[in-house]
Amino acid sequence: MKERYCVTVRNKRLQYDFEITGKITVVRGDSATGKTTLVEMIRLFERHGADSGVEVIADVPCRVLDNDAAWAQQLSWIRGSLVFVDENHEFTSSPAFARAILESDNDYVLMTRANLPCIPKNAQAIFGIRFAGQKDGNRRVHHEFFHLGECGGGEGPERGEMPKRK
Amino acid sequence: MLSVFFGSLPNEIYNPPLYFLNQYEDEWLTTDLTKEMVRSVDSSEVLGPKLIDSPVLGAISPRELSGGVKTLILMAYDDSGKIFNGTACGDNCARWILEIAKNKDLTITLHNIMKFDQEPFEIRILNSNRVVTSFREYVGEALDWVP
Lengths: 166, 147
Hints:
The complex is a heterodimer. Chain A is α/β, with parallel strands linked by helices. Chain A has a single domain (5-147), classed as Rossmann fold, CATH 3.40.50. Chain A contains three helices and nine strands. Chain A has helices at 35-48, 71-76, 95-103, and strands at residues 5-10, 14-20, 24-27, 55-57, 62-64, 82-85, 107-111, 124-134, 141-147. Chain A has a nine-stranded mixed β-sheet with strand order 4-1-2-9-8-3-7-6-5, with helices on one face. In chain A, strand 5 (62-64), helix 2 (71-76) and strand 6 form a beta-alpha-beta unit. The radius of gyration of chain A is 16 Å and the shape is globular. The model of chain A is unreliable at 151-157 (pLDDT under 50). By secondary structure, chain B is α/β, with parallel strands linked by helices. Chain B has a domain at 2-23 and 66-145. Chain B has helices at residues 16-23, 26-29, 32-42, 67-77, 94-103, 135-145; strands at 2-6, 12-13, 45-48, 51-54, 58-60, 83-85, 106-110, 123-125, 130-132. In chain B, strands 2-6-7-1-8-9 form a six-stranded mixed β-sheet. In chain B, strands 3-4-5 form a three-stranded antiparallel β-sheet, covered by helices on one side. In chain B, helix 1 packs across helix 4 (67-77) and helix 3 (32-42) packs antiparallel against helix 4 (67-77). At the A-B interface, loops of A face helix 1 and helix 4 of B.
């Protein structure tokens, strides 16, 4: 996989822009920052393509791993991709999962606050998601990743205020 | 009082937002506590049991609330005896977990060190059976049990 590449995921209301800089990107932070929404948009695009109304702009295919009962089998079909795993999948903390992803040729974005003791700390880049404003004169709300530090502790500075409820 | 177990328990629901989708009841959405939690965590307004106004997503159903709020609602109202994974909640939910535990004995699991910094509080750490009353004490205990 390339060392660095940018990813944009958007629909009419939301846009996410972020850069992948390593094999494993861990996304943590507060509730309601848009982690699950991002994974859902990628899942819709993966299953329905342009019919989903979601655009995914990336140098590699973006896939979602979500099968708690058969994650290893699901992962065995995925090659050369950026693989997203949403929060609350217990398998992400397992030694078998750590082994499988370190041996694969995919990159990973893991949405999880749980510690990942089986993955070397220096293999994890830890980020949060924050609101980055409304751009282009339209109502689309932009989000971006921001670095959370080695242990993922503490919150980064707010880039902007979320839009108020109408 | 809040009791925390660091790690997994046999009766744990590891993925509370998923459990919520198949178990929530309409009445849980319209209580004052739920309305406050939704306003505080999701910046959204509960308009009724089936409708929430989100500043980002527009009109949404309870199924599209954040995972953190879904988990808080389960902690407050689910009486099945299940133990919910508090790691599904971000640190912005910590004060609400303590609030819920003021009115009931609440046991949760954690797989990270949640930032409970709203002192004063009392949290029983079930791994050691110690009661901690400050963030410093809490972190000291947590570091012994979180891998």
